[in-house]
Each structure stands twice: as structure tokens, then as C-alpha cells.
Amino acid sequence: MGWGSHLAEGLRPVVDLVYPPRCPLCGAALADQDGLCGECWGLLDIPAGSGAGCEDHSGVPVHAATLYNDASRRLVLAYKHGGRITLARLLARLMAARLPDPGAADRIPLLVPVPLHRWRLWHRGFNQAALLAHELSRLGKGELLVDALKRRKRTPSLGGLGREARERALAGAIVVDRARTGMISGRDVVLVDDVFTSGATTRACIAVMAAAGARSIAVACFARVDESSGRGDRDIQAAEPIPSFENAVIKNETPEAL
């Protein structure tokens, strides 16, 4: 345990006194800052099979901590739009439980977050995928390469667009940073995001990393949309950054636009 961890442990009683641990979904009192109450744990839809993953339409393995439902949606909203960035630890722990442990030293995967355009990053203040990737690296699930991908042009909200329109909007938007191409070539890569929808953004990231010579590519996410549920076409999101989930202003939108 490093000095940073020792410091965090030493400050925990003070933090708990000032900010008593509460369940981020229902507000019930908790014994620890990074968790849910027993009732809310039961609301999460955990995929069957330890460490199992599905595949997207291109055959890329997808390791999802949960299936997208009302509980996971509320956690994502609180994390991404409600300023609850400390939820990254909880979400990443659930994601880590689904990822296989790295094998030999030469097969430790790169953890690559889905990028945000610089204006979106400035507006939100953080890249939610990058924070999750950082936490996964702390949990021993790979080597963080936070700036491997760049979103070099601003794209409109993809919510409500058909597949062809999404592909056109993202054409050429995501590239591998030139300085990182050599680091991706021949490496196993785990693309990290909060919500996976089998959408155009994920396919664009996979395509450019494959072109850069990645040995294998997998996806790790907190919530995966089950297309058969019908939630992949219309769902809800926060209309703007908000101070708390309870005060969220929400509108119909696709999960990919979250």
C-alpha cells in the first residue's frame, strides 16, 4: 500500500463524518462510501456467468458489469451528469469482476478509454471512460493508455439517428494518436466505456485500433444495452450537468448519447 492509500485510509473517518456514506440510488445509510444498500444491489441486472462476455456484431468480446436497466441508468446519470465522480470506484470494481485476469507479462492488456472531444471534455470537466480505465488499472486489470485515441472533430448528438447517419457523423472523427500507434501495435487492447450499445462510436474506436495493429480488442463497460429490450432506440438522459441526481432534468434520448 502506497503513501497515497495510507493517507486516504487515515482521512476516511473525517470524510465519513463530513459526508456520511449514503447509497447513491436511494440515500440509505451505508457503512462504506463505495457501495450500494442491499436492496439496491438487488436492482442491478448482473449477466449470468462469472467473467463471461458476449460479443458485438463484429465478434469483439464485450465484458459488461451489468445489463442496462433503471438502476444502472440512474448510476450512470449520477456519475456522468450529477458530479458523482467518486462512483468510478464502484462501477470499476463491478467491471473488474467481469474481466479476466491478465496472463503473462507480455499479454497485459492496454486499457484505452473511449475519447471525448476537447469541447465536451471542457464542458463536462472529465472523461467518464478515462476515470473508469484508471480505476481498472489500479485494480490490476491492465496498463492505462489514456490518450491512445483522439476525437478530432466535434460530432452532433447521436441520439435518434439511424445507423447510417451515425456512421456518417463519426466518419474520420476518431483516430489513434500518432505518438501512440507504436504502443498499440501487437498489443491486446481493452476499450473502456460506461455504456455499450453496439453503436457507431465503439465500432469507430475498434476500427482505428485494429488498423494500428492491435493483436486483439475487447470491450469493458459498466452497462450493456440489451437490444431485444427495445431500450437501445429511446431512453433517458440528463439534459445538462446537474449538481445531484435528484435534481436531474431528463429527456428522451439513446443510451449512446449519455
Describe the structure.
The chain is of the alpha/beta class. The chain has 2 domains: 1-43, no CATH class; 45-257, 3-Layer(aba) Sandwich (Rossmann fold). The protein is built from 9 helices and 10 strands. Strand 7, helix 9 and strand 8 (216-224) form a beta-alpha-beta unit. The longest helix has 16 residues, at 3-18. It starts with a helix and ends in a 5-residue tail after the last strand. Mean pLDDT is 78; it is low at 1-18 and 232-254.
| Rounded mean pLDDT score | 78
Counting structural domains, the number is 2
Name of the top-level CATH class of the largest domain? Alpha Beta
* Rg calc: 18 Å
The second-level CATH architecture of the largest domain is 3-Layer(aba) Sandwich
Spatial ordering of strands, largest sheet: 1-2-8-7-3-4
Derived structural class = alpha/beta
Count of runs of 4 or more consecutive helical residues: 9
What gap, in angstroms, lies between the N and C termini? 35 Å
Percent strand:
15-25%
N-to-C order of helices and strands: HHEEHHEHHEEHEHEHEEE
| CATH topology heading of the largest domain | Rossmann fold
> Percent range for helical residues?
25-40%
Quick overview:
The chain has 258 residues and is α/β, with parallel strands linked by helices. Helix content is 32%, strand content 18%. A six-stranded mixed beta sheet has the order 1-2-8-7-3-4.
